Predict the 3D structure of the following.
Amino acid sequence: MKTIAFGIQKGGVGKTSISCTTACHIATKGRTILLDFDPQGNASTWLALMGPQYELATVLGGKVTVDKAITPTTIPNLDILATFGLDGELKLYSETQLLTEPLIVFELMKEIAALGYEYAVMDLSPGMGALEKAALRGADEVVTPMTPEAFGLDGLQIFNNELAKAIKPFKSFMAGPVYRRIVVNAHDDRIKQHGDIYVKIKELPYEIYKVPVDPAFRKAQIANKALIQLDRKDGAKVETMAEIARLGDALCL
């Protein structure tokens, strides 16, 4: 099973939009599970087909086995290990029990793989605390969504440094996630600053994916549908779907 984490410590970059939409594409390639590591539970609210009985924190806390907590989504071949945004336990768990279990997500991925999943996609919260570090230790690859802003480049460097710190104590038995892809999200060709920042991003040693400003993300989330499920009049831009497909295909290799 290949595990992909979408994360950066900065909020408001469309991380959930990109991770969930990419997971929907990956599900066309093989059996996929989406894990909602954000205490706000936005991915779960968006795509869960029915109200989950259990959440990710319940599994991590050892209260229920992972197979009982998995819920279908609105997309064929894509399931979710959800987080309850209201009255959820993930934030409390991350501040208490998780602190003594830094490799718990690494172990959880073994259990999920045993259930027959080919791909796992993790939507991380905006931060770099114990929860995010534990999730990154369980990933094979990490993808960073960002917006073309003045402080975006600094955010990438900070994330890279923190990722290295999270993995360093465990280097003796894990290589850590590959970090080679960046998604420049909400890019607007009409804004000069976006173009200037994008030129600088392209000079970095990463594979770059550019997703335009697209109101279809908002429409899909309101309708609890994936982008591919929207009516044609509300559908995503061709450029959006092309870049998501290019990213998803690359992650499946």
